Amino acid sequence: MYHSVSDQSEADVAPYYRTATSPKVFAEHMSVLQAEGWETVGLKTGLQALGDEKAAHRKVVALTFDDGFRDFHTAAFPTLRQYGFGATVFLPTAFIGKEPIRFKAHECLTWDEVRELHQAGIEFGSHTVNHPELVHLAWGGVEKEMRDSKAGIEQHLGVSVTSFAYPYAFPRANRDFASRLGQLLRETGYECCVTTDIGRADAGTDLFAIPRLPANGSDDAKLLKAKLDGAYDWLAAPQRLFKTLKRLVSLQREANRSCG
After folding, report:
1. Residues 125 and 91 sit within 8 Å (Cβ to Cβ)
2. What is the pLDDT of residue 172?
3. Which of 205, 184, 183 is nearest to 194 (CA)?
4. CB within 10 Å: which end of the chain, N or C, has fewer?
5. What is the pLDDT of residues 40-70, one digit of tens each?
6. Longest dimension (CA), the chain
């Protein structure tokens, strides 16, 4: 899971939370993937491989990029094209326009650039319209974010959009919300949802709560290899525990306010 491929300084951000990867480091990551024999694809192809018993022996990794930053076009794509790699980019459509629109201090792709990348084989999915924290919206608002972003991308590309990236931390501990979200995604025409949960997907993964491995400029070749080989998977358990405790604290605070 990448975000920005740029030389943005994140010196004041802890390595785990960084979202920028310099073009130089990104190129090193792609070199590692090639050298280690990884078949590097977009999300659709990656999920197809999970369900294919004949593909069990293959080393397949799906590259995803959240937020639709313009540096994907200028910095990431040339390297992907050099290696013949695929990828999926998730777009918050309110920030994709005729001219570059800034989001999180970055310029986002334009629709012309999205079409150009699509024609070159890059997949696109929805990252909502406005990139809100969906868990804080009414369900009508959640559905509108899903439907409108999907429709916007489909209108510009002329293809069906079936993948969704959940913005911000995925509230897995809120089981009712996570369950209803998955149901609504299905009803809206999506086939999968990727999240910020840490982990690697396998044949038993819930396609509407797919974990990913975060990658950024702090990952050297050794760490990247370790993540791909599963050495990062142990973090999934403490991450779930932290989210559960955070959820319980939030519920307790709400109860206290109601009593007050």
Report:
1. yes
2. 87
3. 205
4. C
5. 999 999 999 987 777 667 899 999 999 999 9
6. 62
- What pLDDT is stored for residue 205 in this prediction? 95
Distance set, CA 72 to CA 34, 61, 159, 212 (Å): 19, 18, 21, 19
Q: Do residues 197 and 209 make contact, with C-beta atoms less than 8 angstroms apart? A: yes
Q: DSSP assignment, residue 73?
A: I
C-alpha 114/C-alpha 119 separation (Å) is: 9
4-233, superfamily in CATH?
Answer: Glycoside hydrolase/deacetylase (3.20.20.370)
Residue ranges with strand state E in 31-93: 39-41, 60-62, 64-66, 88-91
Helix, strand or coil, per DSSP, at residue 174? coil
Residues whose CB is less than 8 angstroms from the CB of residue 27 and which lie 6 or more positions away in sequence, other chains included: 79
Q: Where are the alpha helices (DSSP H) in 169-220?
A: 175-188
Q: What is the pTM of this model?
A: 0.90
For residues 130 and 93, the answer to whether their CB atoms sit within 8 Å is no
3-state secondary structure of 123: strand
Pair 96, 69: CB distance under 8 Å: no
CB 66 within 8 A of CB 259: no
Neighbour tally for 85: CB within 10 Å: 21
| Tokens linked to 133 | 């924290």
pLDDT, one tens digit per residue, over 184-218 is 999 999 999 999 999 999 989 999 999 999 999 99
| CA atoms lying within 13 Å on the CB side of residue 81 | 13
Measured from the Cβ of residue 192, the count of other Cβ atoms closer than 10 Å reads 22
Which H or E run contains 197? Answer: strand 192-198
- Beta-carbon contacts of residue 46 (< 8 Å; ≥ 6 apart): 60, 61, 62, 201
